[in-house]
């Protein structure tokens, strides 16, 4: 398709130029970002929605101005390769400026750029009576006799200089009758199964009856059978198989569910009583289902199985009068 070219008269061109010169608007430029707008209203809307409540920050390296903290951090990291992670703070000891994550800065006024500054600051601040360890008290270990200096608040409870001394002292002074749990030593009992004797703690003397698990199992096999078993519930009951008519025995808990003496009898009963339309999962048979699928082009048999047209079945053509 060819485009058409029209010749515009000179007076029309002059009138169009006058209209354009009259409608030309002043270039309104944003002082913050430098974007230009055709109208003053457009500039006002831009400054309201974009730059309102925006704090301007100046880069300390190059002096360039940015909007917000994120913009100046990005500029310093990309342009000047400076570390701007975390928040900036002044070390309470050396006075140098450093940066840490917000969660690492303490709530108080004392924050340090390194562990050395914190240690040096504490050595100057906590000296003499201000130090928690001021006026340490000398105490003597009750086992080895070694002298050790401890804080005043520990002097009343201090007894041993180490855990080894405490363990050695307890092994010598807290054994036998001197032990806290002493109740006369171990008691001697006789095994009810084999007759052997053994020593047990007095706390379990009344419950201990056997010298080993083997003796306990052997005693139970002899004495906890049949009526003597705590779980005895009358023994097995006699039932009659519904398939072969033979008698069989089963536990009382299975009487309500048991109907057959074996799996073979159950399978024989199912093959005789649960076939064809008598089967719980009968859905009309494969031949009828295939004919239905061909006639109705795919609908589910469950949806159309009972569908009839008048008295005549749409699938097989039989009626109720046909029998």
What key phrases describe this protein's structure?
323 residues; 30% helix; alpha+beta; two-stranded antiparallel sheet; flat; 14 strands; two-stranded antiparallel ribbon
Structural commentary:
By secondary structure, this protein is an alpha+beta fold. Among the domains are: 237-273, no CATH class; 287-322, no CATH class. It contains 9 helices and 14 strands. The strands form 7 sheets. Strands 1-2 form a two-stranded antiparallel sheet. A two-stranded antiparallel ribbon has the order 3-4. The chain has a two-stranded antiparallel sheet with strand order 5-6. The longest helix is centred in the first third of the chain and has 14 residues, at 10-23. The two termini are 78 Å apart.
Largest sheet: 2 strands, antiparallel
SSE series: HEEHEEHEEHEEHEEHEEHHHEE
SS summary, helix count: 9
Briefly note the structural class of the backbone. alpha+beta
- The whole-angstrom Rg is 50 Å
Biggest sheet, spatial arrangement of strands? 1-2
Query: What fraction, in percent, of the residue positions are helical?
Result: 25-40%
The count of β-strands is: 14
Question: How is the topology of this model organized?
Answer:
Layout (H helix, E strand, L loop, with lengths): L9 H14 L4 E2 L6 E2 L2 H11 L5 E3 L6 E3 H12 L7 E4 L6 E4 L14 H11 L11 E4 L6 E4 L12 H11 L13 E4 L6 E4 L12 H11 L13 E4 L6 E4 L12 H11 L12 H11 L4 H4 L3 E2 L2 E2 L10
Antiparallel strand pairs: 1-2, 3-4, 5-6, 7-8, 9-10, 11-12, 13-14
């Amino acid at each position: 398709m060819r485009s058409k070219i029209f010749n515009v008269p000179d007076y029309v061109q002059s009138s169009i130029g006058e209209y354009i010169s009259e409608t030309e608007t002043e270039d309104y430029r944003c002082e913050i970002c430098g974007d230009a707008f055709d109208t003053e209203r457009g500039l006002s809307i831009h400054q309201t929605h974009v730059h309102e409540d925006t704090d301007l920050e100046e880069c300390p390296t190059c002096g360039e101005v940015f909007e917000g903290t994120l913009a100046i951090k990005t500029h310093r990291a990309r342009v000047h390769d400076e570390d701007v992670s975390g928040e900036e703070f002044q070390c309470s000891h050396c006075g140098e400026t450093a940066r840490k994550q917000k969660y690492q800065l303490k709530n108080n006024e004392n924050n340090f750029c390194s562990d050395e500054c914190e240690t040096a600051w504490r050595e100057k601040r906590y000296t003499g009576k201000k130090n928690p360890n001021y006026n340490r008290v000398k105490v003597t270990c009750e086992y080895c006799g070694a002298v050790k200096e401890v804080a005043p608040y520990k002097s009343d409870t201090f007894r041993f200089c180490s855990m080894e001394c405490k363990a050695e002292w307890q092994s010598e002074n807290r054994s036998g009758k001197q032990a806290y749990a002493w109740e006369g030593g171990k008691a001697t009992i006789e095994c009810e199964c084999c007759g052997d004797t053994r020593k047990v703690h007095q706390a379990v003397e009344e419950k201990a009856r056997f010298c080993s698990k083997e003796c306990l199992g052997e005693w139970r096999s002899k004495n906890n059978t049949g009526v003597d078993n705590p779980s005895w519930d009358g023994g097995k009951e006699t039932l009659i198989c519904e398939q072969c008519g033979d008698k069989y025995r089963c536990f009382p808990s299975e009487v309500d569910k048991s109907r057959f003496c074996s799996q073979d009898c159950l399978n024989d009963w199912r093959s005789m009583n649960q076939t064809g339309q008598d089967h719980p999962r009968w859905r009309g048979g494969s031949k009828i289902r295939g004919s239905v699928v061909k006639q109705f082009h795919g609908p589910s048999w469950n949806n159309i199985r009972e569908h009839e047209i008048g008295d005549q079945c749409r699938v097989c053509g039989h009626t109720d009068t046909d029998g």
